[in-house]
Amino acid sequence: MKDAMTPAPTNLRQMLHEATQQLRAANIEAPLREARLLAAHAARTDLAGLLRIDTLDDAAQARFAHVLSRRLHYEPMAYITGQVGFWSLDLAVSPATLIPRADTETLVEAVLDHLPDRNALLRVLDIGTGTGCLLLAILAEYPHAHGIGTDLNPQAAALARLNATRTGLATRGTMLCCNWADGVKGPFDLVLSNPPYIPHGDLATLMPDVVAHEPARALDGGPDGLIAYRALARILPHLLAPGGLGVLELGIGQDRSVSALMRAAGLCVVEIRPDLGGIGRALVVKK
Q1: Which segments cross the bilayer (predicted)?
Q2: Type and span of the H or E element at 147
Q3: Is 195 annotated as ligand-binding?
Q4: CATH classification for the domain delimited by 85-286, as one of 3.40.50.150, 3.20.20.80, 3.30.70.260, 3.90.550.60
């Protein structure tokens, strides 16, 4: 793997060409787009603004070389820029949390379909909130809803609080540092969770961006990937109000096993919703 180009050329087009070649050699997908995103970040503009730039000044060139080197070492783009888009929100991210992914938006879509009244006075709980993406997306869609997000990692809980503030939702979203839902008083109309679900033996096979940089604790679901779901099956019946919904993210091929756990806990499986790739991604259960 090559390091970032030195010395950096002054012509932006040439810089992008060389960066694209290096990213392609590192087997990074969409290398030209990635090079442009890195250049825009270094120039402190967006992709549209980058089109109006022919050269970078010395400071921007140095920033570009630095962030390119980070990306060539497979640091995720979101960690480099410090932000990511999720649903309708612009969220801060850090290595303390997983990076929100488009697949997780499947859970938001499922909630909107099963709870069509946008003016409902919902009480929402998001277990393992991470960046707060799920809870905040729901609060953004339901203006009269209030919710709690929990995370075992104090840095993640702090980041979720920051995101609640930057999205203007802090008055309706409380972020707590605790294990699962310890000390949280129900009942809730909606409980969300994107728990760790990767079988421990599969962690090493994930993309290098994930393996080397994203927090293993937020990924590792134990020997069979189901440890977190067993814990959720124990607590969900006590957290949900009568008629309340639980919406959980699933890993590949986990729909049947997790559904069985939830049925054994006395919950009704309402839907297994596929993501855009056709993988069963959102499990909807009802008390």
Answers
A1: none
A2: strand 146-151
A3: yes
A4: 3.40.50.150
